[in-house]
Amino acid sequence: MQTWNFLPYTMQDRLLKYKYTPYLIIFLFWNVIAVLATTLLFAQFVNTYPDASWLGFFYRQAPIWYIWMFFTPIILWLVRWNKKQSFSTIQAFFIHLVLASFLLLVYGALVGIHTLNLNQKLVWNIQVIYQSASRSFVLNFASNCLIYLMITFVGVGLQWYRSLVNTQQERLQLELHNSELHAQLIETQLQTLTQQLQPHFLFNTLHSIASLVRTQQNNLAIQMIADFSELLRHTIQQGEENFATIETEVAFIEKYLNIEKIRFQDRLEVSIQISNDVKAMLVPSLILQPFIENAIKHGIGSKSDNGYIGLVIKLLDGQLDIQIRDNGAGLSKGWKLSENQGIGLSNSLHRMEKIYNQSFSLTLENHPDGGVLAHIQLPAQAQIQTKPTAQNAPN
């Protein structure tokens, strides 16, 4: 639906917030009524009074409507005051009855004086003015009551609309507040899971170094310590970030597998295939490492011959498709993911549930060629937009 704005947005916003805007609207409204009433009477009697002018009719009609222009703010104020005081319907009715009676008497007196002035019979004689005012009061009583009710209903409608807007704003603010609290809760939970995960594989790496030292493989231990320091530096740089690019995650995995290669003394073969179009996409940080570790520990950790770890990441049907395979003994019969979750797998699963809700899939199953295949499908997050440098910045 197209909306036509005749004023700039800032001007409209300022006009709506201006404290005298209601009075301006009232002024314009009753002037429009006066012009329409004048035009109607002029069209009706122009043939009867050929010498009459539109301005002459306006002089006769405008003061009658201008009286209501001055009454309108009083009536609207009373509507607001009744609502603020929380009066009952009966109490509000009697208060309006008193005000309406007073205003109609004032209206009758003013119109009576105006009529005498038009007929050039205005003399400050109480009896003459009283007779003219009484006649005006009786003749206009029904129409004036309708006008008073109309203004009252408008005031009630405005109060109802304001209450509705305030309620909607309060609801939106509450929803926003709840959303912010929920986001903060999710953020805290994700950071907690990440902090649990980091010590888990770091301690495992330290354990591997200790094993090499105990078996007096000092050169390999020194090399592993160097690789471990690089791995630790990478982990610290990640800090408390909950997301990382695929490229960053794979670089981390490569460092981790370099350490594992030292531990397995070149009995570990690694294959990593990453599509170029997914390298900049976002995934939960440290999401791959637990599955790699699980494949090494349970898949090929007890093998006496060479082990194999394969990692393939690509786009498949608009989803980020991740496959991690080993050539180990495979899953035992009746194995269930829900019953066989260590710290790493459990935290990874919980993090994906927090982030993606039900918009992800995770399966662990035996591969036809042997070993276990961990298959993860995640929503493809938007790529990170690199900031323009001095060379490629737009002119």
What descriptive keywords fit this protein?
9 helices, 395 residues, disordered N terminus, 64% helix, two-stranded antiparallel ribbon, five-stranded mixed beta sheet, Heat Shock Protein 90, 7 strands, single chain, alpha+beta
Q: Main beta sheet: strand number and arrangement?
A: 5 strands, mixed
Q: How are the strands of the biggest sheet laid out side by side?
A: 2-4-5-7-6
Radius of gyration over C-alpha positions, nearest whole angstrom: 41 Å
Task: Report the count of strand segments.
Answer: 7
The end-to-end span amounts to 37 Å
| Tally of discrete structural domains | 2
Shape: rod-shaped
Q: What percentage of amino acids are in beta strands?
A: 5-15%
**Which percent bin holds the helix content?**
55-70%
Instruction: Enumerate the spans where pLDDT stays under 50 for 5 or more consecutive residues.
Output: 1-9, 384-395
Describe, in plain words, how this protein is organized in 3D.
With 395 residues, the chain is an alpha+beta fold. The chain folds into two domains: 9-176, no CATH class; 217-379, 2-Layer Sandwich (Heat Shock Protein 90), CATH 3.30.565.10. 64% of the residues lie in helices and 11% in strands. The chain has helices at residues 9-17, 21-45, 54-85, 89-118, 126-214, 218-238, 246-264, 289-300, 343-356; strands at residues 243-245, 268-274, 282-284, 307-316, 319-326, 361-366, 372-379. A hairpin with a 2-residue loop joins β4 (307-316) and β5. α2 (21-45) runs antiparallel to α3. The longest helix is centred in the middle third of the chain and has 89 residues, at 126-214. The two termini are 37 Å apart. Residues 1-9 and 384-395 have low confidence and may be disordered.
